[in-house]
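Hi there,

I know you've been waiting on this one. I reran it after we fixed the sequence typo, so this is the corrected version. Both the input and the resulting structure follow.
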Amino acid sequence: MKLIETRSAPNPRRVRIFLAEKGISVPCEEVDLMTGVLATQPYATLNPMRRVPMLVLEDGTVIAETVAICRYFEELQPAPPLFGDGPVERALVEMWNRRIEFGLLGAIAHAFRHLNPRMAHLEVPQIAAWGEANKPKALEMLSLLDARLSETRYLAGDNFSIADITAMVAIDFMKPARITIPEGLAHIARWRAEVTARPSATA
């Protein structure tokens, strides 16, 4: 088994944090997505979407997409339950994780990919106006998360989950995307201090 990743990219980091929370060690193979290597053989055969991370199992099965990889390890080792415990908590984790993926991480990624000249060969066509349009979308989602965290310790409730991992990685990704975190988001600041202090945050 091995995890193919680009260490500097946000989605592989989500998987590494998830694995660290589980106490699971997986060998990693580093590839540089910026060079276009994912479009070459054998990587394009492993994952026609040409993205990282990819988990390659012993029998050759390839699991791509961050949440799919994390779900695989959740099934292998249910504790601690990072997708929630019980039907209500699982549904809330799913709801918040999807909101954060699409509303925050997705918006930040669009800003990064469409405004960074180094991404031009990977984002075709690169549309600067679309990158700029996504910046306020990310900030709007941050305000929504701040309101949520005024009511709960973590994003899906009382327990740390994959939703918190996704949000933490997304907010950290704002810096390379050149999106400034607004002042006054006290609840995000409280939550962020707590989650970034976890040992897994440096995975």
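Quick highlight: The chain has a mean pLDDT of 97.

Best,
R. S.
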